[in-house]
Design a protein that fits this description.
The protein has 363 residues and is an alpha+beta fold. The chain contains seven helices and 26 strands. The termini are far apart.
């Protein structure tokens, strides 16, 4: 096998594969990158058996062949080179790049990866899809202990596309005015969501979203990414979103509110019994946020507009900040009392909603 490629382009391609190639003690070959050179194409394939990335790379084909290699060390070396073109070739179980030699893996042990022909669901701008995942993923269950919630739920319909995540204590909902070809729902594992965000961010391309059997498939230009979907039932979130019996309405300047929360967080993160928790006293036109632990205490005040009676509540500061980091206009909060859910939105944007359950209020 022998071919020539642009060094900078090859660095970018190899970096993408590190998003999914993970050490696997049961099947070590899975950490390998498959490089296949045919008469027409240079094809790179990586998989962790749950998701697969296939890329076709432009270059000059000199000799056909297939090798499997761990890409991390090769990538580190190529990044340090100061040449524009790379000539890469294999010989006697080694891969040669410039003046370096890398050991290859047994190609016969590599799994047979099938590139499915997907049924098309929708076309989407890559940057928009990446941003939508970024704005919803933070409230997913963060570990695989709860697979049903360790994901972002994407709901395609002929009227809109919706993105949802929840860890049972909070819920994030985003609606995008992108019409799909058919009505279809998928739960994308959080690990795949993180990979997709990095793969699609800032590439500015139209992507095609499709499915085949148990896989959700994304294709763009010479790229193919397939991820196994989570087939467990997803919670019925529509009833929660539809709740509207609020009698308290609050509005905050987002930068001012964020600044106060960050200060309180320095103390709240050290609290043993209520980590990240603080008391929120909504009184008159001023919110007082208080947190204390065995290591310190702080009280911060924030101006607000309020419609409704004064009340107190205990909330997770870290959770609020994760939503605030995704909005730029004023924050609007709707509430009822200290034990009912808080509904948060960006001012004049009902398409992006955050539901947060309060903590037990401490006197």
């Amino acid at each position: 096998m022998r071919f020539k490629v642009n060094r900078e382009q090859f660095v970018n391609v190899l970096s993408d594969f590190l998003l999914i190639l993970k050490e696997n003690p049961i099947k070590p070959i899975i950490v390998g990158l498959k490089i296949e050179v045919t008469k027409e194409n240079i094809i790179l394939t990586g998989t962790n058996l749950e998701s697969t990335l296939i890329k076709k790379v432009e270059g000059e084909i000199l000799e056909e062949g297939i090798i499997i290699i761990k890409p991390q060390l090769m990538l580190e070396y190529i990044k340090l080179l100061e040449i524009s073109q790379l000539e890469i070739y294999s010989d006697n179980n080694s891969l040669f790049v410039h003046q370096a030699e890398f050991v290859t893996m047994n190609a016969e042990e590599y799994p047979n990866i099938e590139e499915y022909l997907p049924i098309e669901v929708a076309k989407y701008n890559s940057d928009s899809f990446s941003k939508a995942l970024e704005k919803t993923k933070f409230s997913s269950y963060q570990t695989a202990d709860n697979l049903a919630l360790n994901c972002v739920r994407v709901i395609f319909s002929q009227e809109k596309t919706e993105f949802v995540s929840t860890d049972s204590y909070r819920l994030t909902y985003l609606k995008e005015n992108v019409n799909a070809i058919m009505n279809k729902e998928f739960s994308i594992p959080l690990e795949s969501v993180n990979a997709l965000i990095k793969l699609l961010k800032d590439i500015g391309k139209e992507i095609t979203v499709g499915f085949s059997d148990k896989y959700l498939i994304f294709t763009w230009e010479n790229n193919y990414y397939a991820t196994r979907i989570i087939e467990l039932p997803y919670p019925d979130f529509k009833q929660i979103l539809g709740y509207n019996a609020f009698d308290k309405f609050l509005e905050f300047n987002t930068p001012e509110y964020k600044s106060a929360l960050k200060k309180v967080l320095t103390v709240a993160r050290t609290s043993y019994d209520k980590k990240y928790g603080a008391i929120f006293d909504f009184k008159g036109k001023m919110l007082k946020i208080e947190s204390q632990s065995g290591k310190g205490k702080t009280v911060q005040k924030v101006n607000m507009l309020k419609d409704g009676d004064d009340f107190k509540g205990s909330l997770n500061i870290k959770f609020i900040l994760e939503f605030l980091n995704n909005i730029s206009k004023n924050l609007v909060i709707k509430a009822t009392n200290s034990s009912s859910m808080f509904k948060m939105e960006e001012f004049e944007n009902s398409d992006y909603v955050y539901i947060l359950m309060p903590l037990a209020l401490r006197d």
